[in-house]
Write a structure and sequence with these properties.
Blueprint: E1 8-10, E2 16-18, H1 21-33, H2 40-47, H3 51-63, E3 69-72, E4 77-80, E5 89-92, H4 94-107, H5 116-128, E6 134-137, H6 157-169, E7 171-177, E8 186-198, E9 201-208, E10 213-218, E11 222-231, H7 240-243, E12 257-263, H8 265-272, E13 281-284, E14 290-296, H9 302-307, E15 313-317, H10 319-335
Antiparallel strand pairs: 1-2, 3-4, 5-6, 7-8, 7-11, 8-9, 9-10, 12-14, 12-15, 13-14
């Protein structure tokens, strides 16, 4: 099978679509500035797109980016009518500018994963549909703002597409899922309510028919999924934000834990600069530290988060979290004893 070129990506239907429009704009601009008078067909071949796409690009660059491009009938190609005074401009509102920067950079986290192609195609459609009134240099796209985060966990494209279809159609599915800590997959029938990407990992949340409960399944641990052809009615009152309101991330419990953490002066500034949970409340301490309070229904994710602060935090409550942190400390000490 022929490997896609560096400027091509696999689409969900197995076909190829090309590099983002801004990359095409840059290629067209570079070609014109070299004095070449390329035809639409030549540009289409070089960018792996259709002639109609190139025509839309040329129109966009001339009308929206105010570039002096015109058709030269004598040579049958396109040329610049005058040297560019500066860099090509793209009209965007401030909000749209930030949205494009952040979205495009966030896509980098999914490069090489199964969801890159659908995400990038959706982003391209959105970006080209924008209107605005603030000019920014095309060459500066991505040079001033960036997003760094963990890479997305690998997800099988077929699994993702099938579940996305099931969520949209409200159609039940059968999945083979490997539970965390186990080795063998178990078959379950699920009514999928929602697909969510939480902390760079994809999950499907839905009604597990066997347990008759709403469960969360990691897409990376789903080995097989098939549509059952049976429709269901998603509960009108189900909302993801409400469902995960007591979770720090994706783990959801059934209890209620009043978390109280005290950070020293060094960590306090970092804690003040972030919102860990919607229920959090901060109280300044006389020693320059800060006390963080929040209410969670699970301790699964707060425990490793507390441990990540090392000696800069002290757990005041609840007692169960204090016990867990102490036990983890003992285990860490044992694992890192003198060898």
């Amino acid at each position: 099978m022929k490997r896609p070129s560096s400027r091509q990506l696999a689409r969900p239907d197995g076909k190829l679509f090309t590099r983002p429009p801004f990359a095409r704009f840059k290629h067209i601009l570079d070609t014109l500035q070299r004095g070449v008078k390329p035809t639409r067909r030549r540009l289409a071949q070089e960018c792996d797109v259709t002639v109609k796409t190139i025509q839309r690009d040329l129109d966009f660059m001339r009308d929206r980016m105010r570039m002096p491009i015109e058709f030269d009938p004598e040579h049958g190609g396109y040329r610049l009518t005058k040297p560019l005074d500066g860099t090509a401009q793209l009209d965007l509102t401030p909000g749209e500018m930030i949205a494009i920067f952040v979205t495009e950079r966030a896509l980098a986290a999914y490069r090489g994963s199964a969801v890159e192609a659908p995400l990038r195609l959706a982003f391209e459609k959105l970006a080209l549909a924008l209107d605005g009134n603030v000019s920014i240099p095309l060459s500066e796209l991505g040079t001033n703002v960036s997003v760094r985060q963990f890479q997305a966990a690998p997800v099988d494209l077929k699994v993702f597409q099938t579940l996305a279809t099931a969520v949209q159609r409200q159609e039940s599915v059968e999945i083979d899922h490997v539970k965390l800590g186990e080795k063998k997959a178990k078959t379950r029938k699920v009514e999928p309510y929602h697909l969510a990407c939480v902390q760079a990992a994809w999950y499907v949340i839905g009604h597990d028919l066997r347990s008759d409960e709403i469960r969360t399944f990691h897409l990376g641990r789903i080995k097989r999924v098939s549509l059952l052809g049976v429709n269901f009615q998603r509960p009108r009152l189900f909302h993801l934000d409400k469902y995960l309101s007591g979770a720090l991330g994706i783990f959801r419990g059934k209890g209620e834990h009043a978390i109280v953490l005290r950070f020293d002066a060094w960590a306090a500034q970092l804690v003040r600069e972030r919102v860990v949970h919607p229920t959090q409340r901060l109280q300044e301490l006389t020693d320059g530290g800060v006390e963080l309070r929040m209410t969670l229904n699970s301790l699964e994710e707060i425990e490793p988060w507390v441990l990540s602060w090392g000696g800069h935090v002290r757990v005041v409550g609840p007692k169960e979290l204090i016990r867990r942190i102490r036990a983890s400390g003992v285990a860490l000490a044992a694992n890192h004893g003198e060898g």
